[in-house]
Amino acid sequence: MTSKRTRNWILALLFLGWSLGNLDRYIMNYAVLAITEDLNLSSSSTGILLSSFFAGYALMQMPGGWLADRFGPRKVLLSAVVIWSIFTGLTAVAWSLTSMIIIRFLFGIGEGGFQPASSKILSLTFPKAERARAMSVILSSSGIISLFIPLAAAGMLETIGWRTMFVIFGLAGVVIAVLYWFFIKIPNHPLEDEIVKTTIPTTTMNPQQNKGMFKALLKTPIIWNLLVAYFSIYAVNWGLSAWLPTYLVKSRGLDLVSVGWAQTIPAVTTIVGIFISGYVIDKLPKGKERLLGSVSCACIGVLLYLMFTASSVSAFIAYQTTVNLFIAFVVTLLPAIVLKQLPTSVTGTAMGIANTGGQLAGFITPMAIGFMVDAFNGSFDAAFWMLIAFSVVCIGALMTMNDKKGELFKQNEEEVYS
Fold this sequence. Notes:
The protein contains 17 helices and no strands. By secondary structure, the protein is mainly α.
C-alpha cells in the first residue's frame, strides 16, 4: 500500500497540475476582453472562441480515460501536460479568429487526458474512505485559481499584455511536466480494498483483454446518469465562468479591476465549499448523496434567477457567492460517485465517459450564450433562463440514479489480481 507521505506528495503534485490547467482555462475568460478588441470579434464569435477549447477537451475525455486504463495513467498525465503547455504558449502567436480557434481546440485535445488520468492515479493511491476528500483537494484548485485570476489577469493584461502572458503560462507547464517525470510513481498493485474482490469480470479488467471495457461501461445505467448530471452542472458552471466578466463589464458597468475585486468573495466561497463537500460526502450514508445533490441543484436554480434579477451589483455578488457553495457540492459529488462506486480498474475510462458530458457543456454553453446575447440585443436574461433549466435537468439525473452499479457489476465476483 502506498504510504501516507507518498499519497500526500502525489496529491500535492496533482493539485499543482490541476491549478495550472484551471489557470490556463480561466485566464481566457478575462483575456478574451482584450482579444475581442484586438481581433474585432462579435459576441457570437467570442462565444465560439470560448467554446473551442472545450470541443477538443470533450473529444479527448473518453480516449484519455481508456488510454489511462490501458497504458497507465502516468504516461497519459505527462503527455497531457506537455501538449497543453505547447499550445498554451502558441496562443500568443494567434493572428485571427480561425487561428485562435485551432490553437485552443488543440490545447483542449492536449489537456483532455489529464483529468481521467489523475483520477485514475487517485484511485490507485488512496483508499475508498479518503477518495472524496482527496478529490475535493484537487477540485479546490478551481476556487483558489478563480480567487487570484481576476486581479492577476487585470494586472497582467494591462502591463505585459495577453500574448506574453500565455507564453509565461506555457513555460510553467513545462516545469510541472518535469516534476511529474521525476516524482510521480504509480504502485504496481491497487489498494487492498480493490485487490480482494470486485464485481466486474476479469475479462474486461485484464490489460490484454480490456477492449470490451468501454462498451460494457456504456451499458451501465449509472454512467448515463453521471454523463447527464456532469453536462448539466458544468453547463451552469462554465456558462457563468466564461461570461461573467463580460456580463459585469457590459451589463453592470464595472471595469476589469472592479470585476476582479468583486469576484474574490465568490471564489473564497467556492474553495470553502469544495473542502467541506469532500468531508461531508465521505461521511454520508449510501444513497443520501443523491438527495443532497438534488436539493443543491434546486437551490442553484432559485439563486440563478435571483442573480440576474438583482437590483444591484452587491446583491448579484451575494447571490453568486451562495450559488457557488451549491455548485461546489455537486461538482465534488459527481467524481466522488465514480471513485467510490466503480472498481479502480475502470475509473479512468468511467471518469472519461462521465466527464465528456461536462466538457461538452463547456463547448456548447459559452457558444450558445454568445448567440443568445446577439439575438437579444445584448441582454443576458435568456442565457440565465437556460442555465436555470440545466439545474432542473441535473435534479432529474441525480434522482433517477441507481445506487447499484448496474448489470455489468452484478455478475459473479472474481479475482482481479492473482
